[in-house]
Model the fold of this input.
Amino acid sequence: MTQQTTRRRVVTNMSLSIDGRYAKTDPLDMGWVMPYAVTDVARDHLASLWEPATTALLGRVNAEGFLGFWPTVIGAEGADPRDEAFAKWLVDTDKVVMSSTLDEAPWERTTIVDRPTADAVADLKATEGGDILVLSSASVIKDLLAADLVDRLALTVFPIVLGTGPRLFEDGLPAGDWKLTREAAGAHGTLALAYDRVR
Done:
């Protein structure tokens, strides 16, 4: 009798300007994101990604930002229910943080990993669980794209040209086909897209 296993998907989520940048030259300046991140289409897009996921994968910088901010949303007056639901999921779910500088996690349900991203993700995919969701951590997503380990590439494209700053897609990525599986347009011209890797 053949044992059936369900392969965990690696889902990456990133916000981009229309010139393909995920940050300004000063990566802490996220003001360009805010008008678009609070649109219905962006919030619904994020919900479609975290609801089937059981592991959050982040780089250290994003972990500090996400896990410093999102828990404060829980119970906050006037919080959008979708934001609060995501915040509760992030607090309660298993988290893996890629870091060569942290020795121990200051957050609950968090494992610190200091090894190649591709190796860590291969180990995660071999375990039971739902999707592995990479939350806006560019260094982690770049490593996974280079290793061709991304199963679903989710993008929220904001109608702004940053002009300078780092790009998500660099030359030399493995060639491959992707299938558009989700698309939605919303306020301010925000566009939510999800592409599945065709293997």
